[in-house]
């Protein structure tokens, strides 16, 4: 079946006027000044058209695409009209999609699974009915992906990955599709295949707008409309590809024989044939002129009445009455399922488990039996503190590494309206919880038993619970840092910097009574101090009898004296637990808000 006969779409007309983009730029004298990237450009991209924005590197192609798609809004001025009405971003995003230069895919899923999850999320359904499954088959078949539907995404070639990115968005049949350099990084065969696919998509009625860095003469012919930017962010051509030569000729510019026309006009924009750019900007009125957009010999675009088939939008729209909460719950279930499948296939989970078991076994060996012995109280306290540190660092670093990778995919899917951020955030937290519980439990069992801590279930339960809460809190710190900094170098160094004061005021390295008064409040907010206090209470509190002393003299055999020496009040476990839990919840909310802000400003 032809692509155009199943994915018909009415498309949308997009017109933009006087679009300007300014950014803050650091000068040599360390001052901030405004740099203008796009200078009042105008243009129109219509339904059923395949449009290319071209220009030299740094001319503002991506900036223009970001503005038109609504991916970025800050720093932009000008007006965008959709089907004649001012662009309303919320509703526009529902009808559009933005496929970025880097394919943001879930590498652990197969092509089929990725399509099914996308379809479930976009149609808000837990199970796909026959017609939706058929639609997936048809999309895969038309994009030549059916034969590799069971291949893991990680094993796909560049061209196949790009096609999968397109296929995933086609599930909700967008009326307008934006592509940032769809052919970059592909060999010419794959690039041609992707462009053919875009051509067919435009033929179905939708509006396809892409930026193109380099296009061969034959690739250029595939596009209906060209929009050419100069290095100064102005338009020097906006019209049919087929009319470009006539346009240039009208200005006395003749493309050398056998020279690629796209290269020629970019060279003109760079001033390689003299100072023609300004003249062309004026002639085309910086994109406003529609003279070269008049359709005299437009090639075989498919007419609406020639299209037959299913309009899959109808199926998804059936469910638009479903309330916000219900939608979020459905998304939560689907996202949790997807996240579970991904997590179970990751080697990282096994590594995390193994690390916890190995470290607890080593600690158990080195500190064997110190817990029951009154002459090893100092060693035992150090062991308990180092155990806390271990949980804190492994939990935070697992997120620092993992989460920035997640954010890239989240950014794309969230922008393309696959799901709400809240559903994603909760599902991510829920799916990781059992793994953190398992890691903490295995770690605590081995360590607690071999290091000779008191073998009583309530003590062990409370100890593990506190360790788990510290693990969850540390994960959230890692998540927050991973959200704030894309660069792993910054997030790792700054996390260590951030965790350091919590450790210093953890109640072990220095006692509260020995600390200068000005710093004492730090103990109150240090989760490490509260966690350590709770843990020491589990081990030495709860009316534990005197400790066994194998020597003639032990400094202390009374557990209550040990707590007194450490400035740790007796029986405060639940207060300590409440403080750690409150800090965890506050950080969780803060991380959500930071993530939300980050997705808004990209
Ligand atoms: N936030 C920003 N701060 C400073 N400069 C910026 C910012 N965003 C974009 N620019 C600059 O604006 C210019 C245009 O960037 P843009 O990415 O839109 O160009 P492009 O034509 O897509 O380039 P390429 O083809 O190399 O991807 C570049 O010189 C870039 O450095």
UniProtKB/TrEMBL annotation:
Keyword field contains Cytoplasm = no
Q: One Gene Ontology cellular component annotation? A: plasma membrane
Could you tell me the superkingdom of the organism this chain comes from?
Eukaryota
Q: Which family does it belong to?
A: Belongs to the ABC transporter superfamily. ABCG family. Eye pigment precursor importer (TC 3.A.1.204) subfamily.
Q: Which UniProt keywords apply?
A: ATP-binding, Membrane, Nucleotide-binding, Transmembrane, Transmembrane helix, Transport
Recorded GO molecular functions are: ABC-type transporter activity; ATP binding; ATP hydrolysis activity
Supply the InterPro entries for this chain: AAA+_ATPase, ABC2_TM, ABC_transporter-like_ATP-bd, ABC_transporter-like_CS, ABCG_transporters, P-loop_NTPase
Q: What is this protein called?
A: ATP-binding cassette sub-family G member 4-like isoform X1
**Residues covered by the ABC transporter domain:** 14-257
Q: Where does the protein end up?
A: Membrane
Spans through the membrane = 353-377, 383-403, 424-450, 462-485, 492-512, 573-595
């Amino acid at each position: 079946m032809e692509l155009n006969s199943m994915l018909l779409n009415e498309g949308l007309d997009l017109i933009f006027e006087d679009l300007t983009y300014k950014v803050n730029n650091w000068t040599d004298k360390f001052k901030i000044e405004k740099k203008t990237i796009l200078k009042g450009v105008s243009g129109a991209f219509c339904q059923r058209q395949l449009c290319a924005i071209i220009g030299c590197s740094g001319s503002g192609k991506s900036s223009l695409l970001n503005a038109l798609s609504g991916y970025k809004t800050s720093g932009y001025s000008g007006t965008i009209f959709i089907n004649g009405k001012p662009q309303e971003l919320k509703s526009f995003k529902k009808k559009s999609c933005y496929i970025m230069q880097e394919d943001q895919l879930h590498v652990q899923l197969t092509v089929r699974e990725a399509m099914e999850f996308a379809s479930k999320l976009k149609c808000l359904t837990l199970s796909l009915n026959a017609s939706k499954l058929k639609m997936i088959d048809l999309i895969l078949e038309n994009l030549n992906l059916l034969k590799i539907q069971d291949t893991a995404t990680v094993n796909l070639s560049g061209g196949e990955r790009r096609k999968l990115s397109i296929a995933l968005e086609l599930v909700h049949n967008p009326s307008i599709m934006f592509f940032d350099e769809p052919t970059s990084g592909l060999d010419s065969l794959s690039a041609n295949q992707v462009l053919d696919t875009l051509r067919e998509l435009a033929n179905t009625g939708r509006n396809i707008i892409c930026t193109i860095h380099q296009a061969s003469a034959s690739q250029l012919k595939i596009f209906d409309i060209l929009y050419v930017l100069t290095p100064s962010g102005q338009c020097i051509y906006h019209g049919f590809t087929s009319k470009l030569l006539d346009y240039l000729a009208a200005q006395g510019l003749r493309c050398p024989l056998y020279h690629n026309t796209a290269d020629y006009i970019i060279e003109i924009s760079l001033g390689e044939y003299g100072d023609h750019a300004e003249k062309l900007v004026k002639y085309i009125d910086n994109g406003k002129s529609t003279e070269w957009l008049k359709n005299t010999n437009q090639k075989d675009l498919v007419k609406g009445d020639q299209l037959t088939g299913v309009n899959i939008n109808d199926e998804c729209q059936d469910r638009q009455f479903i309330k916000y909460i219900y939608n979020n719950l459905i998304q939560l279930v689907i996202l949790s399922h997807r996240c579970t499948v991904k997590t179970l296939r990751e080697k990282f989970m096994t590594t995390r488990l193994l690390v916890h078991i190995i470290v607890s076994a080593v600690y158990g060996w080195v500190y064997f039996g110190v817990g029951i012995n009154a002459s090893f109280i100092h060693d035992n306290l150090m062991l308990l503190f180092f155990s806390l540190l271990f949980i804190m660092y492994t939990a935070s670093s697992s997120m620092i590494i993992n989460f920035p990778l997640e954010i890239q995919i989240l950014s794309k899917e969230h922008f393309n309206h696959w799901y709400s951020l809240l559903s994603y955030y909760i599902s991510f937290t829920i799916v990781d919880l059992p793994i953190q519980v398992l890691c903490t439990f295995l770690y605590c069992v081995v360590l607690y038993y071999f290091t000779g801590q008191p073998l009583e279930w309530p003590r062990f339960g409370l100890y593990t619970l506190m360790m788990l809460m510290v693990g969850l809190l540390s994960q959230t710190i890692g998540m927050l840092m991973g959200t704030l900094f894309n660069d792993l170098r910054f997030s790792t160094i700054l996390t260590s910097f951030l965790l350091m004061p919590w450790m210093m005021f953890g109640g072990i390295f220095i006692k509260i009574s020995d600390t200068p008064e000005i710093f004492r409040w730090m103990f109150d907010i240090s989760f490490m101090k509260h966690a350590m206090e709770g843990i020491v209470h589990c081990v030495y509190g709860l009316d534990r009898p005197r400790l066994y002393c194998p020597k003639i003299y032990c400094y202390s055999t009374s557990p209550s004296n040990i707590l007194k020496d450490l400035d740790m009040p007796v029986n405060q476990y639940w207060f300590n637990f409440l403080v750690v839990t409150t800090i965890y919840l506050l950080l969780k909310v803060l991380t959500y808000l930071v993530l939300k802000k980050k997705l808004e400003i990209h």
